[in-house]
């Protein structure tokens, strides 16, 4: 008769910045849905940014129905601003997810090559997202605005330029697309 092997200790996994941002997104949705008050939200967001391992997030998210941080399904390029402003030229080879919570995200998409198709998911709550696209870009806005604004400025000729599809929801904020 052989003895069972001793149980290996469970080593807690360290959190990445992306995992913290996804946890904050869950908290943002919870306050927008009315499941958290603003003081509770602020307290939990502070705790998320102080968290070191995945287990630290469980008590912050478990009563919201999300004890684990959900990974992004397709490795999208994430650009997120919380109470801040971020200006970026993102990786345009993947889907882009721009998120703003009481902040601003400015994305320069002028470098998207002609003929390319990209999706930009814009989710803003009390924030703004501004995109700069090439003159020949075709911009298709399939997103929604709830007490917010979405606008594409400039004439759209779409002659051989990139095709940029906008999705997502803007709540109490705005999305502006400028041609440069």
The string of secondary-structure elements, in order, is: HHHEEEEEEEEEEEE
**Share in β-strands:** 25-35%
- Count of helical regions: 3
Could you name the ranges where pLDDT drops below 50 across 5 or more consecutive residues? 67-73
- General form: globular
Average residue pLDDT: 84
Number of E-state strands: 12
**Helical residue percent band:** 10-25%
Written description of the protein model:
This protein is of the alpha/beta class. It has three helices and twelve strands. Strands 1, 3, 5, 7, 8, 10 and 11 form a seven-stranded parallel sheet that branches. Residues 67-73 have low confidence and may be disordered. The longest helix is centred in the N-terminal third of the chain and has 17 residues, at 17-33. The chain is globular and about 70 Å long. It has helices at residues 17-33, 38-50, 58-61; strands spanning 77-82, 85-88, 96-101, 104-108, 117-125, 128-133, 138-141, 144-146, 149-152, 163-167, 169-171, 174-179. Helix 1 (17-33) packs antiparallel against helix 2.
Properties at a glance:
globular, 5-stranded parallel beta sheet, alpha/beta, 34% strand, 180 residues, 12 strands, 7-stranded parallel beta sheet, single chain
Topology readout:
Blueprint: H1 17-33, H2 38-50, H3 58-61, E1 77-82, E2 85-88, E3 96-101, E4 104-108, E5 117-125, E6 128-133, E7 138-141, E8 144-146, E9 149-152, E10 163-167, E11 169-171, E12 174-179
Parallel strand pairs: 1-3, 2-4, 3-5, 4-6, 5-10, 5-11, 6-12, 7-10, 8-11, 9-12
Helix pairs in contact: 1-2
Give a brief description.
With 180 residues, the chain is an alpha/beta fold.
């Amino acid at each position: 008769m052989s003895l069972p092997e001793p149980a290996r200790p469970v080593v807690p996994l360290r959190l990445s910045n992306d995992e913290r941002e996804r946890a904050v997104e869950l908290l943002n949705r919870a306050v927008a849905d009315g499941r958290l008050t603003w003081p509770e939200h602020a307290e939990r967001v502070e705790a998320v940014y102080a968290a070191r391992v995945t287990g630290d997030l469980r008590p912050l998210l478990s009563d919201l129905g999300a004890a684990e941080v959900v990974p992004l399904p397709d490795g999208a390029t994430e650009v997120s601003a919380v109470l801040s402003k971020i200006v970026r030229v993102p990786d345009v080879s993947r889907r882009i997810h721009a998120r703003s919570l009481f902040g601003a995200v400015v994305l320069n998409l002028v470098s998207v090559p002609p003929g390319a198709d990209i999706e930009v998911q814009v989710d803003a709550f009390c924030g703004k997202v501004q995109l700069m696209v090439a003159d020949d870009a075709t911009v298709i806005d399939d997103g929604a605005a709830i007490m917010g604004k979405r606008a594409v400025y400039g004439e759209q000729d779409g002659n051989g330029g990139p095709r940029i599809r906008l999705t997502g929801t803007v709540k109490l904020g705005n999305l502006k697309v400028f041609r440069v």
